[in-house]
Design goal:
The protein is mostly beta strands. It has a domain of 205 residues: Methylamine Dehydrogenase, Chain H (7 Propeller), CATH 2.130.10. Helices cover 7% and strands 38% of the residues. The protein contains six helices and 31 strands. The longest helix is centred in the first third of the chain and has 9 residues. The chain is globular. The chain starts with a helix and ends in an 11-residue tail after the last helix. The structure holds 2-acetamido-2-deoxy-beta-D-glucopyranose (2 copies). The site of one 2-acetamido-2-deoxy-beta-D-glucopyranose has 2 residues, from loops. GO terms for molecular function: chemorepellent activity; semaphorin receptor binding.
Amino acid sequence: ASELGSAHSFPLSSRASLGTRRFKGRAPDYSILLLEEASGRLLVGARGALFSLNALDIGDGTHKEIPWEASPEMQSKCHQKGKNNQTECFNHVRFLQRLNATHLYTCGTHAFQPLCAAIDAEAFTLPTSFEEGKEKCPYDPAHGFTGLIIDGGLYTATRYEFRSIPDIRRSRHPYSLRTEEAPMHWLNDAEFVFSVLARESEASAVGDDDKVYYFFTERAAEEGSGSFTQSRSSHRVARVARVCKGDLGGKKILQKKWTSFLKARLICHIPQYETLRGVCSLDAGNSAHTRFYAAFTLTTQCRKTLEASAVCRYDLAEVQAPTWSTRMASDAGAAMTVGVPEPRPGSLLTPSCLDDPLSQNSVTINVDASMNIHSWPLVTMILGLLWGLRADPIAGLISLTLCPFNASDGWIHKAVVLGSGMHIIEEIQVLREPQSVENLVISLTQHSLYVGAPSGVIQLPLSSCSRYDSCYDCILARDPYCGWDPST
Ligand SMILES: *[C@@H]1O[C@H](CO)[C@@H](O)[C@H](O)[C@H]1NC(C)=O
Ligand SMILES: *[C@@H]1O[C@H](CO)[C@@H](O)[C@H](O)[C@H]1NC(C)=O
């Protein structure tokens, strides 16, 4: 609260909204944003449509649109299956990323029958044929989803199919992989929030593999059971899992399953802050310095009486061995030995993708999910629900990070990380109605923050130094983009 007290606050009506640009088409729910710096386009996935906007000024009227709705027949079939025709039986675009030099790749829920498509980025039109989406996209628009295209392979994590099974999958790849379902539950009712590729092979002296990290909230395993057995407890905890990019799957029961899957618990040291809302990373390309900022809210039980949030910082180095759970036991708690392919190109066992502590081309998988990665909060906010965050690494400044945080009431909070503290320097109201901000993207080139919301897309300048009309105000604001020249 004291941090908030010192922040500059700009409600929608104030002159701070100068320089703000807006876009709204006929579609609702502008939840997917993809910034293509090279072409200067901001690509947007909404409900029943895709848009290509001019990143310089999203409201300049030069946008292109691809309508992509589920047909009335699909919608009524969805309704017959017991789904809500007001919320669930539309085509909610959930994924939009660059596939290759010429094409984008997109997936939509398509009235509970997910479809995906490669889109010609230049022409910006849907192709004549679609790909089956059930391995790649959730059926339910409300389920957490995160996905990446890495060297042409699609890495997605969500709750798949009609039964909503949580899973981390790789598809569109010669070796399609997934996590193990019953009887060993690698994931327990998981809701995914974020994923990131860490190109650790580049910085590694020993030729370690690149890794993909997944952040999610899941049901806690029963205390002390030391196993991934399906828990009936309603207690949910935040976790990070990782897989190695070069994983080719195992043998026998691990065929087409990840052999490099590890997970650990993320702890932000204030009691009851367990629900992970958003994660952003800095320098994900440079393993030694990658830091994750994670936003937490209170557990559901506590939220009935109080809405509060906190941000914790985690270093990737800490997320590596020996913190990780490297073995996974069977239901009965006994260690189980399973074969892995030999030779294993990219050889991918724990905790670095290369170590194979158990030689004999076998790995023991342990269910012990008691590995913890600790951090203490950088900032806490009372009366604010964080939903997502993005980082803006500013070259040439020492450990300075800008993270705009968005709250459920349509306010963006801009924070600067200085050493071991985080200071909220600005609060800007971007939406009139109370609605959740669904996505944030930062462009250093355009000096803009793009906000995806149910009612449209908003573009804000990363800073507006002219708001500060005295040296005192300017310096006190601690905005790394602003400075004061007494002579001018
Ligand atoms: C949803 O289903 C109800 C009941 O069948 C129907 O009356 C209504 O028109 C449908 N709404 C939409 C938007 O399709
Ligand atoms: C990109 O991918 C699409 C769809 O798979 C394919 O048709 C196209 O030829 C690819 N383009 C290049 C340059 O590889």
